[in-house]
# Entry
Amino acid sequence: MLLGSVVLLAALGTGVGPARPEPVQPADDPFYAAPADLAAHAPGSILNRREISMFGLPLRVSTWQLQYRTTGPDNRPVAAVATVLAAASPWPGPGARPLLSYQVAEDSLGTRCAPSFALHGGRDSSISSTVIDTPFVIDALRRGWAVVVPDYEGPESRFLDGVNSGRAVLDGLRAARAFSPAGLSTASPIGAWGYSGGAFATMWAAQLHRTYAPELPIAGITAGGIPTDLATIARNADGGPQAGLSMLILLALLRTNPASDLTALLNERGRAAMISEAASCGIDMMSRYSATHLDDFSQTPDLLSHPSFLAAAHRQDLGNTIPDIPLYLYHGTNDEVVPVEGFDTLLHRYCTPGSTVVAHHSGAVGHNGTAIAEAPGGMTYLANRFAGEPLTPGCALS
# Structure
């Protein structure tokens, strides 16, 4: 994947001049600070903008950061940031240049892990998720599309907060669509795509579209490796090589449910981890907590079955609302991170009269293998939606 990123970046060509120095981290960057009049702006309004270089390199990709207004899960106004990218060459047409919202698997508890920092030129382990997803973004740019990559977790890094993430994706689309320097307009067809943690945000956006941003003409959505049952994912990872994911899920639920009694269930070691990992990236936690058990951090036995944990996890489950957007969904039957049973349950919920779903079970090896093997199908689906090719309503499962 990393090699593919380098090759695809090289294919776009480079300009003249040296790479820029590493940017200031978001927590210390005034660009990310919310303006005093934030509440006076409508959701999706552009609050601030600046032009940057993609990855801090002299590439022929026009790149901007937009600060925009979104709405948190408690309905407070929030200042979020998204990165908008467009190939330097004009859209060959026909019609207006398409806009793709690509959700990186941010999977983090701190803003230094946000994709905007990586795309601005950050260079430590915090950028790994964004770099791994770069081939998919570059493929969209190669086709002449514009791409918006939102920091959908927001300034509080609310990992696995469905309402927060979905609204941030939709408001990022509102902001990008109104950003004419990227060659976009209200006539631009819109799509969205995400894998794994990025699919979680993408599908929450799909579910919220009808009530939160119905004016956005989203032609289609692609999502794969969808985290649909957080409690089962955490139990599946606990004690194994992916146990850091269990810890990441627990700490995310603690952050998004401050009024619950989850914190009271932790022992001294658990409370220390909650403090020490408060701004950690998921990639770092995977190595620190490999083969650990969440019960090692809990005062109560079988924390993963405790009613408070289950209640917090199930609040984030997908499938309670049927999206009004055509969907292309895929999942590996051999996925070792996100068990396929949750995907099958989600399909059962989504496949109701009036929905349009194409779903594919992949035989690729593992979670990451499926991301690579099934990307061409997901991209083709979006390209067909942008081209206006007709769809047959209903569910097509394979």
